[in-house]
Amino acid sequence: MQRCNEHENVREFNQISYKVHSNVTPFIEFNENYREVVNQYEEQFQKLSLDMENFFYRRKQPEEEFQRKMDFCSQLKRTIQKYCPSWIFDIVPTGSSVSGLATSNSDLDVAIHIPQAIKVMHCFTDRIVFFRKIQLEILQIVRRIVVNDEEFKKRINFDKGVQLVQAQIQILKIETVDGIECDISVVLETFLSSMHNSLLIRHFHHIDSRFGPLCAIVKQWAASTEVKKPKEGGFNSYALVLLVIHFLQCGTLPPILPHIQEIYEGKNVIAQDEHRFPKKLDFGAPLPGKIPEIEINPAPVALLFFQFVHYYLHFDFQKYYISMRKAMVINRNRSHSSDVRIQDKKEVYIQDPFDSHNPGRTVNSLKNIKITLRDTVSKFLPNGNNFKFPTLDDILYMDSSKAKFDNEEDRDDAPEEEEKQNL
């Protein structure tokens, strides 16, 4: 009894120190069900972990490529300023290129951040129509500038052209002669969420060396199984990274990632929400002060991946949502937030760390995703004399469960999560 109380006290200390709310039931069930497997195949988990880490570091964006991308951004800003000296704007690289998760030859996402452009907004009644109109006009101006400026057009690969894409988010697509594929968007709001999200992810990448490899493995696994296929009802890449963060904060014990928004509140280095945020960010600056010291979680990357797929296999997305802002799981029906009520019809609700949008909104096919999660868990489970512990390729290049599901007449009773939904 005393040892149990001591364990509970340590767990509570870890949560309080890291400002997170652990979702302990799935972790306890994982240990009860798979402790023998983890112990029996400890060496195989270690080897697979090394392979996963090597996969990440071999594919990681080299420093030389990062510098070329930053040089492109600097030249883009100088070129626009030359022709539009009255514009008050900034060129902000965002996404994986600056967060630390980029692979070699990955796209560069750039935002033209120009809140000055909405000062005339009182003349318009429809905010969305107005925003799209101004964004389109700015992108058209920038396109004319870059294709006609004598210096800048030397960088453009005109075999691919400069394309203006008028989708839900309007972008200007440019490919350079040295292979940089750049998507340029226009942000009119004062709060540039993509920049703050990128900085948050960058800090997590530096806090724990397992975060980057785990994100890379999850994204590649999700791509091969079509779990990451937002246009067809799957997750997008950003949502998958948030799922990894949530799991490392709340789904494994002891927690691996702290809730740094809460820990450094008032330090003016991390945004709290879309209304409270630092006006300038330094992506090269460390966090102000040490992360609190807690009990160390020694799990290697492969074991964390196994725990990750088990955690979301049993996560009841219909009943609960993930609050990145509070680092916890919350019952949808018990929330009085208007943002939560708006997301009632969405299969997955992930509350963004800063603003009100739902990065999980693209998901409309949880059934197939759950089947994929179940099939992935089963790869780690001995099934007789012919069992072979999964290799990295076995994980990264799994078949899509959607195809298998569509080829069978009745799989309604197959997913394990329908028999046992746990949190």
From TrEMBL:
Q: Where is the Poly(A) RNA polymerase mitochondrial-like central palm domain?
A: 48-204
Picking any one GO biological process from the record gives: RNA 3'-end processing
Q: Where is this region: Disordered?
A: 404-423
Domain PAP-associated positions: 302-358
Q: Does the keyword Transferase apply?
A: yes
UniProt GO cellular component terms: mutator focus
* The name this protein goes by in its record: PAP-associated domain-containing protein
Organism in which the protein naturally occurs? Caenorhabditis japonica
Q: What is the lineage of its organism?
A: Eukaryota, Metazoa, Ecdysozoa, Nematoda, Chromadorea
